[in-house]
Amino acid sequence: MAEPTLDEWKRMYYALVRIRQFEAQVQRLAGAGEIPGFPHLSTGQEAVAVGVCAHLSRDDVLFTSHRGHGHVLAKGSDLERTFAEILGRDSGLCRGRGGSMHLVDSGAGVLGATGVVGGNLALAAGAAWAAQAQGKNTISVVFFGDGTTGAGVFHETLNLSALWRLPLLFVCENNGYAEFTSREEHSNVQHVSSFAVPYAIATKTIDGNDLPTVYAAAHEAIAALRRGAGPYLLECMTYRMAGHYVGDAQPYRSKEELAAIKEKCPIERLKIRLVAEGVTQQELDEIGERARQEVLQGVERARAAARPDPATVLDHVYRSPSLHSIP
Ligand SMILES: Cc1ncc(C[n+]2csc(CCOP(=O)(O)OP(=O)(O)O)c2C)c(N)n1
Ligand SMILES: [Mg+2]
């Protein structure tokens, strides 16, 4: 693997801060009652999204979950349209129909997000199978959490994708929680990568909060996928710095655990590395500020956008135009 240049690392630093700032704005506006539903923030997990998506082309397809804002941004969806979707605006990725948990943007290869835990896995296998059948060299990537491994569809998808040698990258963000339940309480299996072994799927468990580690491991996994080696399961150990959803008071986390959060922060960790390589604190602050301004401007434009016309509520729901006339 060619080591990224310092400029490339700085661009990835920008991408991390951009997602962090985006989530901060989601949190702020959800708190103010401007966002419908319960957004789930990816704060603290940004290095997984950025490190994996750095290796994807627009033609590779991505599937995500209820915690998908960072993945969609890292894959290349327009920031303003993504925020507009979360706000339920007509200019949103899905014309305001999907919201935070259903971000879809086929132009950027974001083929789906779902609030049905595990639902994205089988869809991602379908897309991988389609690429294989069409003789394309593209891959399908699915992001999911550690809690998802309790769903039967996870095991079904591992089995079929291994049998059919599908170009499917499973990226597990093991953040140690499924909703409000810690991993120790919801599974005896310490590492999600263990599940790949009986299916003969290549796998690795890595530090998902260290961007260079994610970048290198994703490079290796994706290169194998493009060679036709079959599926790969990358388990990224990470940490959900926010609650399960905006508004979660987190009574299940101890004061000590919350106090140690900063040490895990992928942005702080990349900062240390960049400073060691000679980047000044001032330059990092400037990069961060540029990301913050981009987000603020996108958010304000999204907020100013119109909501969908209620008369169009049945558009894209039923195939038959005659059903639109139901009183
Ligand atoms: C089929 C299904 N079962 C249960 C839920 C409720 N639910 C929402 S998120 C979640 C936990 C998911 O945990 P994990 O896969 O680790 O993802 P994380 O939230 O940690 O990113 C559950 C059980 C759901 N949305 N769908
Ligand atoms: Mg989890």
Helix/strand layout:
Elements: H1 6-31, H2 46-53, E1 61-64, H3 69-75, H4 79-87, E2 110-113, H5 119-133, E3 140-145, H6 152-163, E4 168-174, E5 177-178, E6 181-182, H7 183-186, E7 202-207, H8 211-226, E8 232-237, H9 255-259, H10 261-264, H11 266-276, H12 281-304
Parallel strand pairs: 1-2, 1-3, 3-4, 4-8, 7-8
Antiparallel strand pairs: 5-6
Main traits of this protein?
327 residues; two-stranded antiparallel sheet; 12 helices; binds thiamine diphosphate; alpha/beta; binds magnesium ion; Rossmann fold; six-stranded parallel β-sheet; 8 strands
What does this protein look like?
This protein is α/β, with parallel strands linked by helices and 327 residues long. 43% of the residues lie in helices and 11% in strands. It contains twelve helices and eight strands. Strands 2-1-3-4-8-7 form a six-stranded parallel sheet, sandwiched between helices. The protein is globular and about 50 Å long. The mean pLDDT is 95. Bound molecules: thiamine diphosphate and magnesium ion. Residues 66-67, 115-117, 144-148, 175, 177-179, 240, 244 line the site of thiamine diphosphate.
